[in-house]
Amino acid sequence: MPEVLVPHEELKSLVVKKLQQVNVPLEHAEIVADVLVHADLRGVHSHGVLRTEHYVKRVAEGGLNPSPSIRFEQTGPASGIVDGDDGFGHVIAKEAMQHAIHLAQKNAIGFVGVRNSSHCGALSYFVKQATDQNLIGIAMTHTDKSVVPFGGAKPFFGTNPIAFGFPAKRHRPVILDMATSEVAFGKVLQARETETQVPMTWGVDQDGNPSQNPFQIAALLPAGGPKGYGLALAVDVLSGILMGASYGPHVAPMYGDYDKMRHLGHCVCVINPAFFTSLSQFLEDIDQMIAEIHEHPVAPGFDRVLVPGEPEQIKEDRYLKSGIPIATSVYAYLTRTAHAIH
């Protein structure tokens, strides 16, 4: 399927207008659009503006609160809980990270849990909030079942992503944002939009057989077999059970039951390096580590060794200049007139 190059500001504007058609307040619509375009700029189109149609559908059918009353309760010197009132997870997670940053600036660490939320998009956006303040950011969220456990035939946990952000002085921050599955299911959706085959290692069909056809993939495989499976469990405990939310197969599905709230949980953590070491030295050491990685001997077929998140940063630089490649079907939806919400 062909793609069209769209300037990032135009994309944001289109998403905001689409969300406002279902009465999402401008402030919230702008945050959601910012998170989605952030993902597209980094080349993570699975979490980009293609998700807009889903969000609009869920709001229209009553399964997502467009105007939530988000509440924060500080539960300890360095901890708190955000109740998202079933609003947009992007807005809720951003606010949770802001509270965690404030706690860490005062008390070395800020750990904030989130309950009653929804899909929050790319976690890299939220850990970057911390690195922008010379702080370490961690974020994670559970999702509905889509990944077979190691040794299992049917899905149990979700893709359950986790992200880390580490600030540097001269270099851009090191940002690792990964699903605990081999890939995020959104990448399968992106392959369906572009009608391209996927690697056999991504997922399995209804009978548990690996498939390259994105339309046949019914469940994903865990990253690294038992390792990704174990991480998925840990993420579900910290962002689900610890927050009084559901886990594994009990998490409400993203696709289907559009009239029901999902009540998702997330958790974010911020660490203030200044409470543990010299901040200046810490930032310089991160720079040195990045420089040494760049100078590391390369394997055949590679130009140089990159740090986590750097391939996405390179794409962002390019897309800011040239525009973001968007599937024509997604662009057509975004530019469609207001009467066609679904």
What's the helix and strand layout?
Elements (H helix, E strand, L loop, with lengths): L2 E4 L1 H13 L5 H16 L10 H10 L9 E6 L2 E5 L5 H19 L1 E9 L6 H8 L4 E6 L20 E5 L7 E5 L6 H10 L8 E2 L14 E2 L5 H14 L24 E8 L7 H16 L15 H13 L1 E4 H8 L7
Parallel strand pairs: 3-4
Antiparallel strand pairs: 1-11, 2-3, 4-10, 5-6, 5-10, 6-7, 8-9
Helix pairs in contact: 1-2, 4-5
- Which CATH class? Alpha Beta
Strand order of the largest sheet: 2-3-4-10-5-6-7
- Which bin fits the share of residues in helices? 25-40%
Ends apart, CA distance between termini: 21 Å
Structure description:
The chain has 342 residues and is of the alpha+beta class. The chain has a single domain (3-277, 316-335), classed as Malate/L-lactate/L-sulpholactate dehydrogenase, NADPH binding domain (Ribosomal Protein S8, Chain: A, domain 1). The protein is built from ten helices and eleven strands. The protein has helices at residues 8-20, 26-41, 52-61, 89-107, 124-131, 185-194, 226-239, 279-294, 310-322, 328-335, and strands at residues 3-6, 71-76, 79-83, 109-117, 136-141, 162-166, 174-178, 203-204, 219-220, 264-271, 324-327. The strands form three sheets. The chain has a seven-stranded mixed β-sheet, with helices on both faces. It has a two-stranded antiparallel ribbon with strand order 1-11. Helix 1 packs antiparallel against helix 2 and helix 4 runs parallel beside helix 5. The chain is globular, with a radius of gyration of 20 Å. The protein starts with a strand and ends in a 7-residue tail after the last helix. The mean pLDDT is 95.
